[in-house]
Amino acid sequence: MKRIKFTDEHGSFVISQPENTSYLYFPLASETGLKSAVTPSLGGDAKIDQETFLLEPVSSENLHNNRSVRNFWCTTETGDVCSVSGASAEQEAAKFTSRQEESQVSAGFMWHTLNRSFKALQLTSTVDLFIPKDENVEIMHVTIQNRSEAARKLTACAGIPIYGRSADNIRDHRNVTSMLHRIDAEEYGIFVRPTMSFDEKGHRPNDRIYYVMGCTESGSAPVSFYPTVEDFIGEGGSFTHPRAVYEQYPGYPAPCQAAGKEGMGAFRFETISLAPGGQVSYIILLGAENSREKIHHIFRKYNTSEKVQAALADTKSCWQEKVKVSFHTGDRDFDCLMKWISFQPFLRRLFGCSFLPHHDYGRGGRGWRDLWQDCLSLLLMEPENVRDMIIKKDKQRQSYYNYYSSKKWGRADSYDLCINSSVLGVDGTVKLVIQYVEDFEKKN
Fold first, then answer.
1. Which of 35, 46, 114, 189: disulfide with 127, CB 3.0–4.6 Å?
2. Average pLDDT per run of 10 along the chain, which is 444 residues long?
3. 188-207 core/surface letters (b: 16 or more CB in 10 A; e: else)
4. How far is CA 124 from the centre of its chain?
């Protein structure tokens, strides 16, 4: 609690130098399926379910050793390079020294903002990160400001590795499944569509398209693309020292294609001149959908700074309204902390047992005990949605059962005993079940 400073009555807070705190991450989610974990260096994963991970799955130990982050790079006219996420080799080496940059995370319910100051380059950056409540898209709004007294030339480049498959493929057929990737670069972004998904359970057709798209604040497209990891990091390079950024690889113009490799949501924007005190913003969208048409619809919905800022404001107000309980104990920090405790049932419903770095067990299923605990909590917070939640989860359990048992949920031949209790009544049904068990035990 000492490092957290609450900033309003909704529980919003700030943390300075958040990258110096181990195992720190923040949840983001929509109510339509997409859920993410975001670290202070913009690491963490994004997924819809066990079979649909946009970014590489992470557990708690991956938070401090995984270089696969949502990165955004700036190169100056002198060739100096900085990462707005702080995930470059130089910035890592400067941690815990006098050269470490000043950074701060501000966050509230389902939104996350990272501010960073590059004193040596006289630049500052702000990254707003959130998921709209009713869309499966993660939005990054990146703003760079020139703090010097002279105009600066800047070249911006996004670099986000696209995992694009089941969490099972981390150790099961990862190399083979990358060979199924079909990668397309269009005018505004990169799309990865595996031709099929498979593991030890078998082969299945795939319709899911994973994407990273981007534009300037006014809607201008990138000028070149790096559609694979190899294209971006280069021979002997790494995610913290990508040769495409440091050596200014030209990349490929759109349209271009690649296949059989790990996908990379990486593209470079046109070099700009930024006046003293001036700023420029970029929009990066990442998600997974079943059609290009839906992806393009989402892009048109969020392809300017004005649209993104309006969506961010709507996201904040939506979740503040959902967590409408308040506390007045005389201790403001404790009251704000209790707002987050009240938010926990929503996170529990969306993330379950399986989809946060410290809750990485199972495959997304929930037992009846888990479900009823969640329902009891939500009856206090959001009672109108509990009925739909029970019906939805029952359908998910049915789908899970049908897939893994090779039987059909609800069919009489899938069970040892089926009774119409309305015929015998409760007492008669109890007697019949007892008699059945006794006869079964005698026989066996």
1. 114
2. 83 94 92 93 93 91 86 96 96 94 96 96 97 96 96 97 90 83 96 84 84 96 97 96 96 96 97 96 97 96 96 95 88 91 83 72 58 60 68 75 79 84 90 91 84
3. bbbbbbbeebbbeeeeeebe
4. 24
Largest CA distance in the chain: 92
Dist CA 32 CA 41 (whole Å)? 26
Q: What is the pTM of this model?
A: 0.84
- Three-state SS for 52-87 is EECCCCCCHHHHCCCCCCCEEEEEECCCCEEECCCC
Task: Find, among 141, 151, 159, 322, the residue nearest to 233 by Cα.
Answer: 159
Give the integer Cα–Cα distance in Å for 81 and 241: 10
Q: Which of 245, 214, 217, 218 is nearest to 232 (CA)?
A: 245
- Determine what percent of the chain falls in helix, strand and coil, rounding each to the nearest 5: 30, 30, 40
d(CA 435, CA 428) in angstroms, rounded, equals 11
Q: Packing angle between helix 368-381 and helix 386-405, nearest 10 degrees?
A: 160
Host H or E run for residue 91: helix 89-94
- Spatial separation of the C-alpha atoms in residues 140 and 128, rounded to whole Å: 6
Element counts in the chain: helices (H) and strands (E): 10, 23
Could you tell me the end-to-end alpha-carbon distance of the chain, in angstroms, rounded to an integer?
60
Q: Which two tokens stand for residue 442?
A: 């005698």
C-alpha 113/C-alpha 126 separation (Å) is 7
Across 76-106, b (16+ Cβ under 10 Å) vs e yields: beeeebbbbbbbbbebeeeeeeeeebebbbb
Q: In which element (H, E) is residue 394 found?
A: helix 386-405
3-state secondary structure at position 237: coil
Q: Which residue, 217, 210, 212, is CA-closest to 270?
A: 217
**CB 73, CB 81: distance < 8 Å:** yes
User: Tokens at residue 191, please?
Assistant: 């799309």
Bridge partner residues of 288 (DSSP): 210
